[in-house]
Amino acid sequence: MAEQPDAEAELPEDNDGARDFIRAVGKMFKRARERAGLSQPEAAAALNYGVDMLSSVESGRRVASPEMLLAADKLFRAEGMLVAVSDDLEKARSKARARHPSWFRKFAKLEGGAVEIHEYSTMVIPGLLQTEPYARALYGVRQPPYAKEDIDVLVADRIERQKILHNWPPPKTSFVIEEVVLRRQLGGDEVHRGQLLNLLRAAELPGTELQIMPIAQQHHPGLTGPFILLTPKSKPQLAYTESHGHNRLISDVEQVRLMAARYGSIRAQALNFRESTELIEKLLGEL
């Protein structure tokens, strides 16, 4: 079992030099700021960006937009040095958008070819069931924040992955969602309404089972956190967990067996299909 580090979706692999270029521009950005005699907080305030965003750009974890480079070039009196790399940086960003970190590519490939997917979710709607506005709202509250351009790409990627639910034959899928997730109005009333309606539609998809874990169920085996169980075609079942930016794809047979047993217990304690859809309809009526 290997623990995979959190990786920014816009960072490419090292095989074409794009990552090195992004980091080099970040160092150039930092040197220009320091020559201007500005601290990170001072520069961030003047540019109307968060300190976390500025720090991410300087360390090469985020890609500065052309607008940010132009504003920084003027603020730092860089005499066109930052603006000059804008086009090449956009090309590097495009390359980065075309692919994901290696750990995610592996997970996405397994998910796309899975014959079974089972997910227990405690904080947000499962990605395969999210509407576009909900996904956008979710990425929009990420800290440190994503640039708008990056959110567009991440949302598009998420929606693209949902096509697996409409394959034929479809994979066998089940989702258990904590009731508190359904009550959290992420993105506002209209986004929340659309998401609840989408859950009802998803519940009618062939091969898909949806259950809600009621708040009243105070003691159950899911209190250790969310996870996903994947069964690739003709391969052993795997488990996936994510917490505080650390992603783990688990292949150890005994660990996966225990998590599968835990999922079975969680499903047994959750509301059944009829009760779950009735709860969603009740919440819709309260909006």
TrEMBL record:
Signal peptide: none annotated. The lineage of its organism: Bacteria, Bacillati, Actinomycetota, Actinomycetes, Kitasatosporales. SUPFAM superfamilies: lambda repressor-like DNA-binding domains. Residues 29-71 form the HTH cro/C1-type domain. It comes from the Bacteria. GO terms for molecular function: DNA binding. It comes from Streptomyces hainanensis. This is XRE family transcriptional regulator.
